[in-house]
Amino acid sequence: MKTFQESEKDLYRIAREKMVETQIKARGVKDTRVLEAMLKVPRHLFVEEALRDQAYGDFPLPIGEGQTISQPYIVAIMTEALKLKGNERVLEVGTGSGYQTAILAELALWVYTIEKYSSLLKRAKNILIKLGYKNISFKLGDGSLGWKEVAPFDAIIVTAAAPKIPQPLIDQLLEGGRIVIPVGDEYSQVLVKGIKKDGKLRTQTLEAVRFVKLVGAYGFKE
């Protein structure tokens, strides 16, 4: 006979499988490594306990400090756009809940993640350490400045919207590196993918999105 904990795990596993099939694969995400990571990472552990029954829904959820955990599909398309093979050093701007961080840690050699809010960083770090991730470095600070001390990066992902792509992030990207970031005003943005070639960023628009603001020296003001 199964214990309650085992049954609970089964329910979350089933919810993850449904999430990947109906929200992610059905919308065209094909990268098998991304799909496997999203099947594995327990998204429900990155939201408040009272919201765990909604953790695998097709929508963002609040995580405190006016921030959110992104909709699963958005996490998937942003991650897929980075084209990670497993040997990359990735910068994440906006740790938030730590869910996107975990997905990246499954796919990359090392993840460097920056968060503006100490309460969010502390909670995310605790969860990620408990889950056994050892390839993540954490920093409290202004993510729009990047992380110069450990740059350059093979890939950069920004989980908050900026008026334009912050120059420090472009500078800290390796030649041939990829960046994915929402760009626009406070109310309407598009997801932009950039590839650095000959020192310049060549960009393409992926789709319309809505993110919280990236507040910082190269983002929005408070």
Structure overview:
By secondary structure, the protein is an alpha/beta fold. The protein has a single domain (4-209), classed as Rossmann fold (3-Layer(aba) Sandwich), CATH 3.40.50. 30% of the residues lie in helices and 27% in strands. The chain contains six helices and nine strands; from the N terminus they run H-H-E-E-H-E-H-E-H-E-E-H-E-E-E. It has helices spanning 4-24, 32-40, 72-81, 99-107, 118-130, 167-171; strands at residues 61-64, 67-69, 89-93, 110-115, 136-140, 153-158, 173-184, 189-197, 200-209. A seven-stranded mixed sheet has the order 5-4-3-6-7-8-9. Helix 1 packs antiparallel against helix 2 and helix 2 crosses helix 4 (99-107). The longest helix is centred in the N-terminal third of the chain and has 21 residues, at 4-24. It is globular and about 50 Å long. The N and C termini lie far apart (54 Å). Mean pLDDT is 94; it is low at 1-8.
Report the β-strand fraction as a percent range. Answer: 25-35%
Multimerization state = single chain
Q: Alpha-carbon distance between the termini?
A: 54 Å
- The figure for the number of domains is 1
Global shape: globular
Query: Helical stretch count?
Result: 6
Major sheet attributes: 7 strands, mixed
Question: How many beta-strand segments?
Answer: 9
Question: What is the fold named in CATH at topology level?
Answer: Rossmann fold
The helix/strand series, from N terminus to C terminus, equals HHEEHEHEHEEHEEE
Sheet/helix structural class: alpha/beta
Q: Give helix % range.
A: 25-40%
